[in-house]
Design brief:
single chain, 198 residues, mainly alpha, Ferritin, Rubrerythrin, domain 2, 2 domains, 4 helices, 2 strands, 59% helix, elongated, binds fe (ii) ion
Length: 198
């Protein structure tokens, strides 16, 4: 079957559009974090934004490999269009990542397999794994911002200033770095890596 007539052609094009938008959306959320002086949170969100633009590139390249350049790819697809506070942005991102990881990309992978495109199926599956990880991180961020626990822990842990490298073991990070006077938001984060693989 001609690739342009397959569902996988449509799915690759809409996944490219979705990843481009996610990359942009996360840059906007990173900006909101910066406005609250949460530099390390902002940097972490920017890293995820960068991941999304890499995913977009992967989908774009796969599309070109399979179908070549196109003048106009018409899409029948919907995309989230929400706005709000930093917390709301993190909550929306958490939900969007969950949808991609558990529904959208697994379904696209199944379709690609059914249509005989094992390589495209593998790409959707691998990217779904990353989005699962993103979901875990955004879930942690939205919870920590909501509860004010981004810089708190129930046991003493090592806090490091991203600016001057000052270090201290405590249950809570300093409000202002005793060495360089950077604000708390410049203290390096502790990212959650548990619960990623079931
Ligand atoms: Fe992505
Ligand atoms: Fe993602």
């Amino acid at each position: 079957m001609q690739f342009e007539k397959t569902k996988t052609y449509q799915n690759l094009a809409s996944a490219f559009a979705g990843e481009c938008q996610a990359g942009m959306r996360y840059q906007m959320i990173a900006k909101l974090a910066m406005q609250e002086d949460l530099k390390c949170l902002s940097d972490a969100i920017r890293t995820i934004a960068k991941n999304e633009t890499f995913h977009a590139t992967q989908f774009f390249n796969k599309m070109i490999e399979k179908a070549g350049s196109k003048e106009n790819v018409k899409l029948d697809a919907g995309y989230p269009f929400h706005a709000g506070s930093l917390l709301e942005g993190l909550q929306f991102a958490e939900g969007d990542e969950k949808d991609e990881a558990t529904e959208i990309y697994p379904a696209f992978a199944t379709t690609a397999k059914e249509e005989g495109f094992e390589d495209v199926a593998a790409l959707f599956s691998m990217i779904a794994e990353v989005e699962k990880h993103h979901n875990v991180i955004f879930n942690y961020f939205q919870q920590a911002v909501k509860d004010g626990t981004l810089y708190k822990c129930d046991k003493p842990i090592l806090w490091i200033c991203s600016q001057c490298g000052h270090m201290h073991v405590a249950t809570e990070a300093w409000k202002v770095c005793p060495l360089c006077k950077a604000k708390q938001g410049y203290v390096e984060l502790h990212l959650p890596f548990e619960g990623i693989k079931q």
